[in-house]
């Protein structure tokens, strides 16, 4: 079987080395780089992210991240966002009174979770949808979260109309419900950290790797 080439996008945010190690461990040839050509041409692209939404978007724009993601998706080439790397795929983020534009691949707003204790930090279960690819065989496992913000409403595809298959949305609860993962054609993302989620995270990355053409 051909080894898949995966680029972890280096835009100054995210646990780059731990993500690199986790993806390499499940059998990919991994490169951490901000080079646009390498990022567009790889079999898979991982977009990590930690910290504030606005700062991540600034870093992403500095390396042409939104264009790279858009170009890959236009060609049906897989992208995986992790933590804030998932959040920036939505329309906007509202943090500390600052309203920032995201990549707008999905409608929705990243906002503070309504929970008695923040951040949401530690292991949690998820509610994966029927037919999930990412959570195949691991839907009952626990995953590692570290965040205070999330997407609490996912309107895309809710009405069931339109020619395209609606995204598969996985939910989790901490105070209230929030989006834990999305699978939408070539674009996938997780709010939790697969690279910190032990065997379950490794299995999820293996499942994602299997989708790379």
Automatic annotation (TrEMBL):
Pathway info: Amino-acid biosynthesis; L-histidine biosynthesis; L-histidine from 5-phospho-alpha-D-ribose 1-diphosphate: step 5/9
A Pfam cross-reference name: GATase
Catalytic activity: L-glutamine + H2O = L-glutamate + NH4(+); 5-[(5-phospho-1-deoxy-D-ribulos-1-ylimino)methylamino]-1-(5-phospho-beta-D-ribosyl)imidazole-4-carboxamide + L-glutamine = D-erythro-1-(imidazol-4-yl)glycerol 3-phosphate + 5-amino-1-(5-phospho-beta-D-ribosyl)imidazole-4-carboxamide + L-glutamate + H(+)
Residues at the active site: 83, 193, 195
GO MF annotation: an example: lyase activity
Sequence ranges assigned to domain Glutamine amidotransferase in this UniProt record: 7-208
Localisation per UniProt entry: Cytoplasm
Source domain of life: Bacteria
Gene3D superfamilies: 3.40.50.880
PROSITE patterns for the chain: GATASE_TYPE_1
Keywords: Amino-acid biosynthesis, Cytoplasm, Glutamine amidotransferase, Histidine biosynthesis, Hydrolase, Lyase
Role this protein plays: IGPS catalyzes the conversion of PRFAR and glutamine to IGP, AICAR and glutamate. The HisH subunit catalyzes the hydrolysis of glutamine to glutamate and ammonia as part of the synthesis of IGP and AICAR. The resulting ammonia molecule is channeled to the active site of HisF.
Subunit relationships: Heterodimer of HisH and HisF.
The protein's name: Imidazole glycerol phosphate synthase subunit HisH
């Amino acid at each position: 079987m051909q080894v898949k080439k995966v680029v972890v996008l280096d835009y100054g945010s995210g646990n780059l080395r731990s993500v690199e190690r986790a993806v390499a461990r499940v059998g990919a040839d991994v490169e951490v780089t901000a080079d646009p050509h390498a990022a567009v041409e790889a079999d898979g692209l991982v977009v990590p992210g930690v910290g504030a939404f606005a700062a991540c978007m600034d870093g992403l724009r500095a390396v042409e991240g939104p264009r790279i993601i858009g170009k890959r998706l236009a060609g049906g080439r897989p992208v995986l966002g992790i933590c804030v790397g998932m959040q920036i795929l939505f329309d906007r983020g509202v943090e500390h009174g600052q309203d920032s534009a995201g990549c707008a691949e999905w409608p929705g707003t990243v906002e503070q979770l309504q929970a008695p204790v923040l951040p949401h930090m530690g292991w949690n279960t998820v509610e994966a949808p029927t037919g999930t690819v990412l959570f195949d065989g691991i839907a009952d496992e626990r995953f590692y979260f570290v965040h205070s913000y999330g997407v609490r409403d996912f309107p895309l595809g809710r009405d069931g109309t339109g020619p395209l298959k609606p995204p598969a949305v996985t939910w989790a609860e901490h105070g209230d419900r929030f989006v834990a993962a999305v699978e939408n054609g070539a674009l996938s993302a997780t709010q939790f950290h697969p690279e910190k989620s032990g065997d379950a995270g490794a299995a999820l990355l293996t499942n994602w790797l299997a989708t790379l053409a």
